[in-house]
């Protein structure tokens, strides 16, 4: 019998968040015994993925996610490749694909945040895109063989939204510490630029990340420290900068755009704490990264963060600017008690590992592909 043909959608491999998931998944799958599987890794450019492993082959699928070309062109390509199983690593995929597939749903942000503020488009276009996202997730719930989620919190949100009768097909596979950071040395040159005590935020600036409330809260504090906002240089970052200027906080709150890995290592090693004010998350990779570098965590009092960190962080009400400010000031004056505000190393190693995630994902591949082929 010929090898099993499994496709992996890696079009977002160069992005943050989902890209970290894809890169670590592929790297760890490549270390596992998979000679019986032929992997079709779909990327936008050959430069995106170059594997020395013979059964991992990149296939160009230069179709933008959330696009008409994805719905038509990518669909045609997948049918032409005649896969035994397809893994969509993000909720944007060809809606009319009817062959066996599994899908990773990282979070339900498109469902939870019905606000045009989450898009640079006008309200009509945004409404259309949001409805399309809802249709894709709903279709995935019913049409997929397996749904992979990074946390039980996301699984619960899915079953609450679409019915508990689908709970049996949802598999929780925890993500892990980004292995790309482990061998990187910090950018020590940044110590000259950031020579005062500072807090850090790392991520994008979408509305559900709640960065504007963080900015307003930090502006209220009286502590002698800076806040470094680390993320992409885009429309939403520009909005944050506008707010910083309005509050006259340009000396205290600084944007640091498009960081390299060595920059992130520096910030994690020297920050007073990581501030994570999100209203919703699927997992929260910075929580593990901060814990690895023993950087204390001050974050939102939401279910997902408690699932990942348990009680190893200082929680605040993300809707209350006053509470965020209070917790930052409290931490700054009680720093001697910060050793319990990040995950212990053993917990990270035992519970959160991309290697373990890849093993669990490979098991899903084999079981579903064998079922499909009648093996």
How does this model look, in words?
One of its GO terms (biological process) is lipopolysaccharide biosynthetic process. This is Glycosyl transferase family 1 domain-containing protein. The chain has 2 domains: 4-176 and 353-373, Glycogen Phosphorylase B (Rossmann fold), CATH 3.40.50; 179-351, Glycogen Phosphorylase B (Rossmann fold), CATH 3.40.50.2000. The protein contains 14 helices and 13 strands. It has helices at 18-29, 68-81, 109-112, 123-143, 152-162, 190-193, 211-220, 235-246, 261-270, 285-292, 303-309, 321-333, 345-351, 354-373; strands at 4-9, 37-43, 56-60, 85-88, 101-104, 146-149, 170-172, 198-202, 226-231, 253-257, 274-276, 297-300, 314-316. Helix 1 packs across helix 14 (354-373) and helix 7 packs across helix 12 (321-333). The longest helix has 21 residues, at 123-143. The chain starts with a strand and ends with a helix.
Number of separate helices: 14
| CATH topology grouping of the largest domain | Rossmann fold
Shape: globular
Please tell me the overall pLDDT.
92
Strand content: 15-25%
In whole angstroms, how far apart are the ends? 10 Å
State the order of secondary-structure elements, H for helix, E for strand: EHEEHEEHHEHEHEHEHEHEHEHEHHH
DSSP E strands, number: 13
Structural class: alpha/beta
The CATH H-level superfamily of the largest domain is Glycogen Phosphorylase B
Please tell me the CATH architecture of the largest domain by its name. 3-Layer(aba) Sandwich
Assembly form of the protein:
single chain
CATH class of the largest domain: Alpha Beta
Q: How many domains, in number, for the residues?
A: 2
Read across the widest sheet, the strand sequence of neighbours is 3-2-1-4-5-6-7
What composes the largest sheet?
Answer: 7 strands, parallel
Using only CA atoms, what is the Rg?
21 Å
**Uncertain residue ranges:** none
Q: Percent helix among the residues? A: 40-55%
């Amino acid at each position: 019998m010929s090898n099993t043909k499994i496709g992996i959608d890696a079009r977002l491999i160069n992005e943050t968040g989902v890209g970290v998931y894809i890169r670590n998944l592929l790297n760890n799958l490549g270390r596992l015994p998979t000679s019986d599987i032929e992997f079709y890794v779909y990327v936008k450019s050959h430069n995106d993925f170059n594997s020395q492993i013979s059964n991992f082959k990149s296939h160009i699928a230069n179709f933008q996610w959330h696009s008409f070309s994805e719905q038509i062109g990518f669909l045609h390509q997948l049918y032409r490749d005649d896969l035994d199983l397809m893994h969509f690593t993000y909720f944007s995929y060809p809606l009319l694909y009817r062959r066996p597939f599994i899908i990773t749903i990282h979070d339900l942000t498109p469902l939870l945040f019905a606000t045009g503020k989450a898009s640079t488009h006008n309200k009509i276009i945004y409404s259309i895109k949001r409805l399309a996202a809802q249709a894709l997730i709903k279709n995935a719930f019913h049409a997929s063989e397996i749904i992979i989620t990074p946390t039980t919190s996301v699984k619960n949100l899915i079953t609450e939204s679409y019915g508990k009768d689908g709970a049996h097909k949802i598999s929780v596979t925890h993500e892990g510490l980004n292995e790309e950071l482990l061998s990187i040395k910090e950018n020590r040159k940044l110590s000259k630029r950031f020579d005062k005590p500072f807090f850090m935020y790392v991520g994008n600036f979408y509305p559900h990340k709640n960065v504007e409330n963080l900015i307003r809260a930090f502006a209220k504090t009286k502590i002698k420290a800076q806040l470094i906002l680390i993320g992409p240089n885009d429309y939403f970052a520009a909005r944050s900068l506008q707010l910083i200027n309005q509050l006259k906080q340009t000396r205290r709150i600084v944007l640091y755009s498009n960081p390299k890995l060595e920059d992130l290592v520096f910030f994690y090693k020297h920050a007073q704490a990581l501030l994570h004010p999100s209203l919703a998350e699927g997992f929260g990779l910075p929580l593990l990264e901060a814990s690895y570098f023993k950087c204390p965590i001050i974050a939102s009092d939401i279910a997902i963060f408690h699932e990942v960190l348990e009680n190893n962080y200082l929680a605040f009400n993300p809707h209350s600017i006053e509470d965020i400010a209070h917790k930052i000031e409290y931490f700054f004056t009680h720093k001697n008690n910060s050793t319990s505000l990040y995950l212990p190393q053993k917990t990270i190693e035992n519970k959160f590992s991309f290697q373990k995630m890849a093993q669990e994902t490979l098991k899903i591949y084999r079981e579903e592909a064998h079922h499909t082929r009648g093996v």
